[in-house]
Amino acid sequence: MRVELEIWRQDGPRARGRFESYTVDDAEPEMSLLELLDRLNDQIIEGGGEPVVFESDCREGVCGMCGFLVNGKPHGPQDNTPACRQHLRAFPGVTRFRLEPWRSAAFPVIRDLVVDRTALDELIRAGGTVDVAAGTAPDADSVPQPYQQAEQALDFAACIGCGACVAACPNGAAMLFAGAKLAHLSLMPQGRHERSRRARRMTQAVGELFGPCSLYGECVPACPAGIPLTAIAALNREALRAGLRGHSRDN
Hints:
Elements: E1 3-9, E2 18-24, H1 33-46, E3 69-70, E4 73-74, E5 96-100, E6 109-111, E7 114-115, H2 118-126, H3 147-157, H4 164-168, H5 175-186, H6 195-209, H7 219-222, H8 230-245
Parallel strand pairs: 1-5
Antiparallel strand pairs: 1-2, 3-4, 3-5, 6-7
Helix pairs in contact: 2-6, 3-5, 5-6, 5-8, 6-8
Organism: Actinomyces glycerinitolerans
Protein name: Alpha-helical ferredoxin
Cofactor: [2Fe-2S] cluster; [3Fe-4S] cluster
């Protein structure tokens, strides 16, 4: 099948970007969007050109590296699916794709489809403290936790940090990402001494590094991990809890 591609090319962070058009005449329905880019880059290299720069790692939908906009949607036409798992067979009749990097002030373009997601790392560092009991490893059952609570924590921990929620939000907010982290950790027995301090630091960082929540919920269908909108409510709840407890107490 013949696929037409319009791809954002940018030589560096300070360079002026532009869209360039390409055609892949031997695309297969089984190809993922990344495999389509692989085939395109083979053609470009054979012709002596510079290949399109994009990120990927596991290509199994768990690393969060492969994100970019496809026809204006983070990762592609399918909801809750990373770019590496979006196959051409899933959207028959679509033979033209416009690929561009995440469009957010928090994610400056490095080159072509690759953006700098350091802001997400800074947000994690803001709340990345946890208390641990030094010594030998504890027994698996020494820290009890209700099953339902553990399952809920794992659901929030599924976030892969791809940044699609930020790219989907008109305001470039990271509330879903930050909320998933705070909700996950608030449900765990470990790290409770830092709970209030973590909430204060992360809510301050998310306000400094990203835009405010748009209240439209575009982040939810864009999230490959299916993080629910309740994560944002959890962030607000944790921030309120920390504010009511004050700075005199950490837990």
